[in-house]
Every structure is written in structure tokens, then in C-alpha cells.
Known about the structure:
Blueprint: H1 17-41, H2 62-65, E1 70-74, E2 77-81, E3 87-93, H3 100-111, E4 116-119, H4 121-126, H5 128-136, E5 140-143, H6 156-174, E6 176-177, E7 180-181, H7 194-205, E8 209-211, E9 215-216, H8 225-232, E10 240-245, H9 252-266, E11 271-273, H10 275-278, E12 286-287, H11 290-345, E13 356-362, H12 369-377, E14 383-390, H13 396-403, E15 408-413, H14 418-428, E16 433-436, E17 441-443, H15 447-452, E18 460-469, H16 474-498, E19 509-512, H17 513-518, H18 529-539, E20 543-554, H19 560-580, H20 589-626, H21 629-653, H22 664-669, H23 671-688, H24 710-717
Parallel strand pairs: 3-4, 3-10, 3-11, 4-5, 7-8, 9-10, 13-14, 13-16, 14-15, 18-20
Antiparallel strand pairs: 1-2, 1-8, 6-12, 16-19, 17-20, 18-19
Helix pairs in contact: 1-11, 1-20, 3-9, 6-11, 8-9, 11-16, 11-20, 11-21, 16-21, 18-19, 19-23, 20-21, 20-23
Amino acid sequence: MSRRPAPRRARQLPLRTHWIVLTLLLICLTGALALHGYTNHLFGHAPDGERQAGGSRSTVPAAIAAGGPVIDAAPGGDRSMRPKASTIALTFDDGPDPEWTPKVLDLLQRRNVKATFFVVGTQVAEHPDLTRRIVAEGHQIGVHTLTHADLGAAPGWRRSLELRQTELILAGATGFRTPLLRPPYSSEASALTDTEWAAIRAARRAGYLTILTTLDSKDWRRPGVDAIVANSTPKGTAGQVLLMHDSGGDRSQTLAALDKLIPAVQARGFRFTTVSDSVALPAPVLRAGTAERIQGLAVIGAIRLSEGVLAVITWLLYAAGALSVLRALTTVVAARRHARERYWIWGDGPPVTDPVTVIVPAYNEAAGIEAAVRSLIASDHPIEVIVVDDGSTDGTADLVEALRLPGVRVIRQPNAGKPAALNTGLLAASHELVVMVDGDTVFEPDAVRWLVQPFADAAVGAVSGNAKVGNRRGLLGRWQHIEYVVGFNLDRRLFDLAECMPTVPGAVGGFRRSALQRIGGLSDVTLAEDTDLTMALCRDGWRVVYEERAVAWTEAPASLGALWRQRYRWCYGTLQAMWKHRGAWLQGGQSGKLGRRGLTYLMLFQVLLPLLAPVVDVFALYGLVFLNPWRVLGVWAGFLALQVAMGLYAFRLDGERPGPLWSLPLQQFVYRQLMYLVVIQSVFTALAGNRLGWQRMERYGSLTTPPGAADDLVGAQR
Length: 718
């Protein structure tokens, strides 16, 4: 086997730009969802006449309460106006509606009648063409707020938002602006309350005239055509402002009533007209300025974009939910079958008793190397141990040599990287069966024996052992323990069953030396040399299996920073290996199984699903604010229950106590997001074409329990 050259130290490029981009995307996403939530889920859907005004009227001027429906609450003095005698200002609220507004306009055109349409801003944004038609046919436009909000009950900031944004939307849709306002849920002047009067005065300061009503057709109740006609017919000759609706549901009764009302009232000498004409207001509708039109178009575009964003997110949520459930069902079903079938497979023939070479690549492993080596020589299977010191500067090699342990050799070499150290160990190995182990890992006495039993099958080229987290104290340790048992080990059972194992972990893995020689040893072109090696073996036709009884205890990162660096390297290296071996998708045999099963699984559940996670979390916040929070919490609780059920089953399969699962809800809020960010960082790094340098994990020397005391070790770490 040829000695591989030392990997070049890659120039580290700054990776801040993509975080800025991601942050901006999340801000835009949050803004789009907030806009959609405001314009849709804070929309006042109750009909105008359904709410009965109540409350004090002590601040409403008597002249206003007894006056006309057109109110000018000017700083110089409040005044109101009434329509001219025998005049009906025909008004329509809540539109435009894509079904009913065109029919109303057609009827008015046939009858040669002009009206005033008090439109809702969000409806205008949805149907700007209808709004333009209203204006083009000579009708008048008025403001009915952005979301049909109750201005009397709204705080000042919302009143301003409702009016200003509707005005901008009208400017963007039609090129005109209007000072005419009809507050939703208003009626006659005599019904004004103190809060409504305060809203009218605030609107006047913003430049609006308030238009109330004198006749309510009550068409929102759908009482029947004749009842609507009766409600809309004046009793005398006094001028009226008539309220009808062109949106808000089925308006067929409104249309039929209007077709009967217009000729009947005209026969009595009444004239239908707009609000401004009925009180002789000088042309209230004015052309909007260029800046207002541009702003209005931007608001319309933002509202439409928010609709599109929500539609996309909805489909992504369905995809994320389906992937989560599919992964849970697939892994549990596979694990159940694996647990039933695995134990007897390697027990049919005689046990494998061939001696084994254990290779320990070591770079500055002084903190934990003694415990690792002592646990290996306590093995109940014949082994030799080769510690390859890869240019350590902390005395790792000296420490091992000072132990003077039988069967342990130390090879020193200049620092060349982990793959090179492992290749050096392979060149020096005395036996066909080889076990590779990290310098921070402690083996159970029977781990090597169990690890080599699958080699009784000549088709097996590598075996993955069962790596467990040893330093489980604290939340971070518990969360990694859960991830190893529920995530990694369940996945390995599935991969074993599907014959597409993508990774034999560096902590505990067995190999045929001849298989490694046939593929040229370990490569240094990726940062996940264990994944790259495993995929190469699969593509060479070898089976890779999982032996859960081969237990080794590994030292997990003890800080978020160390965890980030480790998982970043793992994830980025896995992406490199997936890209390197992408040709397996189109091949047959073991290689095809790796490609179409293993790589597809990794792409769906370890790349795509994490990339969807931030969208899911943002939408969950959206749901808590704008939707039914109990329903959102119920869905979250359902997914958490699914995770707990998976955890309980996985812990039982692994012979672990379920106690650490109490921290699973907290894991969903902190640890899960960290892992998702790792995937995002890795994908951005890969897409940017940056090469990530080797990032060695800090060692703590926490695994010091004497070999052979497995039960004590488990108990102490729990």
C-alpha cells in the first residue's frame, strides 16, 4: 500500500457572508409571515352591522350625534353634513370581491348609477384590476381600513397603520388617493361612542372625512330580497347614505334587491349618486404622487409575496412533517426487524478467533490515551495494539511507551493527518483483521471479540461497532447521548438491514486489511475519512454491517464550541464524501445500494430535513402569534411524543436506562437548532467551494474508568 502524502493545509476563507445572507433571509421570512398574519388572521370578518355599539357617549358633541352622516372633525370646529333632499348616496363596503363586485358594477352600469365603494386594503391588493375598474367607470373610492379593523378599539399605532397602508395601496393600484373613510362597524351618527369619536378625530388629523350611514340595508343578514328593499327605501324625501355590501359572502340577494330598488326609488324622484356629490364636496379623490404610487406598489407586492411565501412554506411544512414521520417509521420498523434477525446471523458457524491488529492514531491525545490503551489490552480477544503518534507535541508517544504494556507498539511520524497515521498503522499491521479506534475511546473487554464475529461472512469488508457517549453529565452530554442512541444507532440498524452502511465510526470499527488494500487505503481528500472509507468499500462490492454488542465509550465534546467544530467537520466531510461517491446512484450491486438507498437517505434526512427546520421553527412562532396557539402546541406535542416514543424504543434496544430522555423537550429548543445550523453552515461552505481545514477536538481525559468495569462505568456516567 502506498504512503499518502500529507494533506495541504487549506487556506481558511471567511464564512461570515452566508450568515449575513441567512439572517437577512430569516428576517425577510419573518417579515413576510408577520405581514401575512396581520393582513389575514387579524382581519375583522364580522359584518359591519353585527356589532352593536356600546359604551359611554359623553364626549361626542351633541351637534355631531344629531347631525348628518358626513363628519368633519376639524381642529377649527366639528361639523357634519347631510345629503341633499331626494338624493341617495349609494355605498358598498368590504370589497372588491372577484365574484360579486363585477356583478354590482355591471348592474350599476346598466342602470346608469354611480356609487361610492369603501374598499378594504387587503382586498384591493388582491384585486387591483377590480379597483381600477371601479374608478374607470366613474364611481368613487373610499377607505374601509386595511384589514376591516375596529378603529375605535384599536391602539393608535394600528389606526395609523390601517389608514396609511390602505391609502398607499389605493395609490399603487389606481393612481388616486382619497380622504373618504368609513370606519368598519360604524352606523349612524347617533350611535357614536366615545372611543369611536376619538378614532374619528384621530383620522381627521390624518386628513380623513368620516362617512357614516343613515340607511342600513342589512343585506349582510341575507334576510331576503324584499326585506333588503324595504330596509333601503327612504320614508320621506330627506337625503340618505345607504349601506350595502359587495363582498363578505353570497350577495345574490343584494343584487336582486338593488335591481328592484333603483327603479322604484327613482320613480319617487330620488337620484342615486356618490357621497361627495350628495353633499357637494369639491372633488375629494385626487391623483397620487409618484412616490406614493411607488410605495403603494411596494406594499401590494409585499402582500402578494407574503401570500406566496406562506404557500411555499405550507408545502415545505408538509414535506418536513412527512419526512419526519417517514424517518421515524422507517427507522423503528427497521430496528425492530434488525433486533429480531441480527443475533443469529453470526452464530451459525464457528466463532472468529483470528488475532486482530488495533490501530490507534494519536495526535496530542495525552489526556485520554492511557485509558484507551489499557482498555484495549484488557480485551478478551487476541490483539496487538499499534499507536501511531502523528507528531504530537504533548508527549503522547512518551506516555504510551512509559506504560510498557505487553503487545503495544508505538510508531512515531511527522504530523501528516489522521488518514496518513491510519495508513502507517495498516502497513505495520501483522493481521488480516484490523480494528481502528480513536485515542479518546475506551473499549469494553468483549468489544473486539464481538466486532470481528461478522467477518465469518467472507462478503463482509467492515463492521461498525456501537459507540456510546461516556461523559454524559450535564445537559450537553445527555443530549449527545440521546443523539447517539436514538439517531446514530437506529440509523445504523436501518443501514445494516438495507445493506447501505455509509459510515463506520472512527471510534469503533473493524476492517479486512485486504479490503482496505484493494481500495488503496484511506484517502485524505475529505474531512470525514471514516465515511469516505466506508463508501469506498461499499462501492468495491463489500458488505458493511453493524454489530451493536461491540460497545466502546467515546468522549463527546463538553462545550457548545467544541461540539460545533466537531459536527461541522463531520457534516462537511460527509457532504464531501457524498459528492465524491455520487456515481454510486447509477451503479449496481453493493455500490448501487449505497447510492440509491444510503446516499438518498442521507440527502433526505441529514441534509434536506435540517435545511427545512428553520422554516418550521419560524412558522411555529407564526402559529403561536396568529393562529390557534393550542393547536400549534398540540402539533408540537405530537411530534415530541413521537420523538419520546422513538427514544424509549431505541434506549430499550441499546440496553440503556431511559432517564436522560427527560431532557428531550429542552433538546428540541437548543441542541436541535445547533445541529441544523451546522448543516446550513456545511452546505454553504460546500456551495461556496471553500475547503475546510482539519479541526481537532479538545480532549478532557474524562474516560478513566479501569477496563473491565463496564457496569461501574455506565453507572458513573449516568
